[in-house]
Amino acid sequence: MGGTMDGTKQQRRGNTRQRIQDVALELFAEQGYEKTSLREIAERLDVTKAALYYHFKTKEEIIVSLFEDLTKPIEDLIEWGRRQPGTLETKEEIIRRYGEALAGAEPLFRFMQENQATVRELRIGDTFKDRMRGLRDILINPDAELVDQVRSVSALFTLHAGMFVMRDLEGDSEKKREAVLEVALDMIRQAHEHACRKED
Questions:
Q1: Is the pTM of this model over 0.85?
Q2: DSSP secondary structure code for residue 6 in this structure
Q3: For the chain, what is the radius of gyration of the CA atoms?
Q4: Do 48 and 42 contact (CB within 8 A), yes or no?
Q5: Cα 75 to Cα 62: distance, rounded to the nearest angstrom
Q6: C-alpha span between 153 and 169 (Å, rounded)
Q7: Phi/psi zone of residue 15: left (φ > 0), alpha (ψ -120 to 50 degrees), beta?
Q8: Vertex 196, ends 76 and 85: CA angle to 5°?
Q9: Could you write out the DSSP letters of every residue in 130-157?
Q10: What torsion, rounded to 10 degrees, do the Cα atoms 37, 43, 46, 50 define?
């Protein structure tokens, strides 16, 4: 049957705008953002430069649109989280869904890590920091002790580290993702339990 991930990939392939984004990211990864031209992106896609131009006028537009599309699930997650009760279940669900959103946007995050000057120039980093703050505010219990607030934020960064650091470790990628998620959930539970104990 193929899971939802395959469905999303198929959908992305059928959509010209998304094909442009995917191919541009591939080329940026292969030869660097600065060295890649719109002409090369058009050539690899086998479309005219005019056809590409119809969707995007510049490389910057491609990256900004990719960032907006791929981080939309994070924005939706923040909206959802703000409407939920501050229970452990809510926090666990946020960590799970955030892990999935990161996995879906992995090529983009790799681009962001390798092209920090461009990211700064396009102000993508600022938007991303705002989204991280939004998630942090939902996960953190404001009355919690500092160490537990740090645990809550560290859960998010564990998922980030998992995406980059774990790639170089031996082992099945699915198992590695599960292990990273388990550690992140562990931190959230510890922080939550301490806060609850403090209230009793």
A1: no
A2: H
A3: 19
A4: yes
A5: 19
A6: 24
A7: beta
A8: 30
A9: HHHHHHHHHH--TTS-HHHHHHHHHHHH
A10: 50
Q: Is 172 helix (H, G, I), strand (E, B) or coil?
A: coil
Which residue do the tokens 């900004």 mark?
64
Mapped to the 3 state alphabet, what secondary structure does 12-70 carry? Answer: HHHCHHHHHHHHHHHHHHHHCCCCCCHHHHHHHHCCCHHHHHHHCCCHHHHHHHHHHHH
171 dihedral zone (left: phi>0; alpha: psi -120 to 50; beta): left
DSSP class of residue 162 equals H
Q: How far is Cα 4 from Cα 1, in angstroms, rounded to an integer?
A: 9
Maximum CA pair distance of the chain? 67
- Amino acid in the structure at residue 168: D
CB neighbourhood size of 97 (10 A): 16
Fill in the DSSP letter of residue 123: T
Structure tokens at 195: 């806060």
For residues 81 and 93, give the distance between their C-alpha atoms in angstroms, rounded to a whole number: 9
* Token pair listed for 14: 């059928």
Summarize pLDDT for 140-184 with one digit per residue, the tens: 988 889 999 999 999 999 998 888 777 777 778 888 889 999 999
**Alpha carbon distance 153, 137 (integer Å):** 9
Q: Which residue has the tokens 């002790």?
A: 145
Q: Which tokens belong to 11? A: 């959908």
Structure token digits, residue 130:
């705002």
**Model confidence over 14-53: pLDDT tens digits?**
588 999 999 999 999 999 999 999 999 999 999 999 999 9
